[in-house]
Specification:
Layout lengths: L2 H11 L6 H20 L12 H13 L4 H17 L32 H4 L5 H13 L3 H6 L2 H4 L4 E4 L10 E4 L3 H14 L11 H15 L6 H15 L16 H18 L7 H5 L2
Antiparallel strand pairs: 1-2
Helix pairs in contact: 1-2, 2-4, 6-9, 6-11, 11-12
Length: 288
Amino acid sequence: MRDLNYQLKNLCDHNKDGSQTTKADRHKKLQMMADHLFELGFRRMNANSLKPKHVDALVARYLSEGLNEGTIKNRLAALRWWAEKVGKPNVVAKDNAYYGIESRVFVTNESKARDLDRELLNKITSDHVRMSLELQKAFGLRREESIKFIPEYADQGNHIRLKATWCKGGRARTIPIRNESQREVLDRARSLAGLGSLIPSHLMYVDQMRIYESETNKVGLHKMHGLRHRYAQERYYELTGWQAPACGGPTRDELSEEKRLDDRVARLAITQELGHGREQVTAVYLGR
């Protein structure tokens, strides 16, 4: 292993911020970019020698390869993490526009919501996987959150709490328990898991993730992230009284001044419940 690859591996190993999925993805990106830097002629780099010229060279390569803007932005995010960890946050420009990368367009006003097909769900042989899927639907959880979920810890009577270590970006959060359907799912989860999580006691998270993927693929349950879209859209209707733009409801420009305020309040609540850092991201789920 080359010096830079080895040092970036150590940098990832010694900095635990983010979920397991986030950390694994970041490590993969950094190793790939170390290889690219070597190919670009930077043969004697170490982790602390990152400079703007290295970032510029990588971005130029990716633009010449015709990679989409989202992919390049994700790689820049990993580079910013690297720069921050070695005490050089200014090496990577804060604004992606500096590199000629336009803002990503989130808004499509087309719904990506999915429901949970009960017939397909019942074909899944793992009780724990079935329960994780039901929690995804009931509370808009991410897949990792639903697998690591510890009902005994999470259930707080009128809301659930999620540990930072379960969540993307390490952002702990709470989600209200609003109806009997959610309560019924949560009670069944507690009965199944006891004092533990929805990972069987003899397995690790990575093992249960593989089982989840195998079981859902086998029965044809795909794009289950769409359950979060459905949660967000149902929550929006509940909070505002009208459908989200992605479901055929009025766009922001069509709302009155008073309703725009209601729209804003609803989106902020949904942002928190989904575990995002910016209200703008709700446009992915709700349209704008």
